Amino acid sequence: MNLLVINGPNLNLLGIREPNIYGDQSFAALERFIQAAAQESGASVELFQSNHEGAIVDKIQSAYGRMHGIVINPAAYTHTSVAILDALKAVALPAVEVHLSDVNSREPFRQISYAGMACEESFIGLGFEGYRRAIQYLCQKYGH
């Protein structure tokens, strides 16, 4: 199974950015974790991170016909981007939303997820483990 894993803005600063919320592990550590989780599930992953909304939209569109599913942590764009929502709906691939922190217990604006409206499952507040669960979910439900 081929999966696209998308990480949005500021996730490249993991370990530096608000470690009391996001932990002290680096983005490189997250990428290694995701690769290992994919291998455990027998999936291959393409990793992508961008701080730019349009680049994320372009990457989602590029998954059409190439990928079997998408794992996405849109980060701040979760709460603002109809464009990412529309791209996920347009490609119509199974998608799972991930958030490192428990966005539902944070500021009220973080409790709105546009991207989540196009995702069939969400793993929120589990740290890195949310990515493993998202990959496992897609592999178990749609495994190729």
From TrEMBL:
PROSITE patterns: DEHYDROQUINASE_II. It catalyses: 3-dehydroquinate = 3-dehydroshikimate + H2O. It comes from the Bacteria. Keywords: Amino-acid biosynthesis, Aromatic amino acid biosynthesis, Lyase. Pfam families: DHquinase_II (PF01220). The record marks R17 as: Transition state stabilizer. InterPro entries: DHquinase_II, DHquinase_II_CS, DHquinase_II_sf. One of its GO terms (biological process) is aromatic amino acid family biosynthetic process. The active site is at Y22, H99. Its EC number is 4.2.1.10. Substrate binds at N73, H79, D86, L100, S101, R110. Pathway: Metabolic intermediate biosynthesis; chorismate biosynthesis; chorismate from D-erythrose 4-phosphate and phosphoenolpyruvate: step 3/7. GO terms for molecular function: 3-dehydroquinate dehydratase activity. It is an enzyme of class 4 (lyase). PANTHER family: CATABOLIC 3-DEHYDROQUINASE. Catalyzes a trans-dehydration via an enolate intermediate. Homododecamer. Belongs to the type-II 3-dehydroquinase family. HAMAP family: AroQ. This is 3-dehydroquinate dehydratase. It comes from Flintibacter hominis. The gene is aroQ.
